Amino acid sequence: MPYVNIKVTQEGGPNGTGPSVEEKAQLVAGVSDLLETVLGKDPATTFVVIDEVPLDNWGIRGKRVSVIRAEQS
Amino acid sequence: MPYVNIKVTQEGGPNGTGPSVEEKAQLVAGVSDLLETVLGKDPATTFVVIDEVPLDNWGIRGKRVSVIRAEQS
Amino acid sequence: MPYVNIKVTQEGGPNGTGPSVEEKAQLVAGVSDLLETVLGKDPATTFVVIDEVPLDNWGIRGKRVSVIRAEQS
Amino acid sequence: MPYVNIKVTQEGGPNGTGPSVEEKAQLVAGVSDLLETVLGKDPATTFVVIDEVPLDNWGIRGKRVSVIRAEQS
Amino acid sequence: MPYVNIKVTQEGGPNGTGPSVEEKAQLVAGVSDLLETVLGKDPATTFVVIDEVPLDNWGIRGKRVSVIRAEQS
Amino acid sequence: MPYVNIKVTQEGGPNGTGPSVEEKAQLVAGVSDLLETVLGKDPATTFVVIDEVPLDNWGIRGKRVSVIRAEQS
Q1: Is residue B1 pLDDT above 90, yes or no?
Q2: Predicted complex ipTM
């Protein structure tokens, strides 16, 4: 009966704005498979929730990711 | 001083896109009442945060809910 | 298919250390009922997860709850 | 390797709709500094995620914040 | 720079009290691999946090899992 | 009315098992101050919840932190 929450930044994917619908499908299927394989959890009661976070709202190294990406480009 | 987070899919409600403002009011009041009744918690310091999740971002049974709803209809 | 997370401090209840097993049962049943009544959600896929947080690990008003309780007593 | 999640209501800030980009930068920097100062955590692996919550989706005192703000004004 | 939180009940595993250390290692590796494969995320900044929840603190179908397991056995 | 959740590994601190009570007090005070300074939030309704996560339950680079620490020592 696992609950899995995946948080990613809104970048990458086909439009550069985050995972595509197909990529989300792969994440959901992949996490459900992993929990069934490793722990024997029934996918019928495995929840996966994906949160997409704007680059201004995610920080690392004391900076917003939007700033880090601007420095990298 | 409880904190309650409610995550629901963006479906149902008056427009089929998630809970109405009135339904959110009922969730907030209902959860605050429950915590006061069961645990004696003062509603003054009970927080309720409702997250509405797109159907493509919620998975169960290894599939996105958007796919499950399409199969059901 | 809701997911509800309830966080409470480890106080109150029969031993002063947090909700009893019976109180947890009431929280689980009450939240499931509320989501069924207000949003028509099937309890079969409503998850409720209760986290009990030590008084030293919960802050409000810039102080730990353990300190606030000591000041109140 | 801390993970910090900050949830605030979508109010205040330059447009009354939540924190500005500059204020988010200050939150990210401030939290990273705090964890480095107090616990010696390397900012390189400190994540800060800011969630902005609509006023209809946040409850306190058994009411939505949108209602509380309307009563206060 | 993903953050993944996996919540499972404290059951199963070698002692019936939740995932073993080896199973946790497989979850961490599997989730990191999945995010690298599907989204191209660098494992260096993928966080995985596993929470193990007591059976009395997890509810589904309006009941605690501890009660459901007792009914099943 | 902010809610802040801080997750750290159970290491460091006076006993090597995580933040001391005094360090937790500094985290709570520091976060409350930051939100008051940057966003004008009243500390009376700022919640801070600290979660301490075992080294076997936190992964980065596809490995548990317990393994990374063993490799570093």
Answers
A1: no
A2: 0.98
